[in-house]
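# step 3/5: fold
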Amino acid sequence: MRNGTEQPARRKGLWIRLLLSVGLLLILLVTVDLQETKSIIGRAEAVYLWIAVLVAFGDRVLMASKWRLLFDGATPVIFLHLIHLPA
């Protein structure tokens, strides 16, 4: 059973990550020329944009599964066994 101090520590960590993310997004919005960004994305070919999105998503899935293995102390297993879909 978990002790009572673990939950507030996790919640505090969540708030710190959330505030850091929002702060970095605000810095991006202030420093990046949004019109130029929109123009550049508009000139890009859609196929390459989708490939970039899929590669980034795949990277995040692999990183999450790596951390799950590390936290669980598991030995390497087939990748599909790492994905736990709700029933």
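# step 4/5: annotate
The radius of gyration is 19 Å.
# step 5/5: archive (pending)
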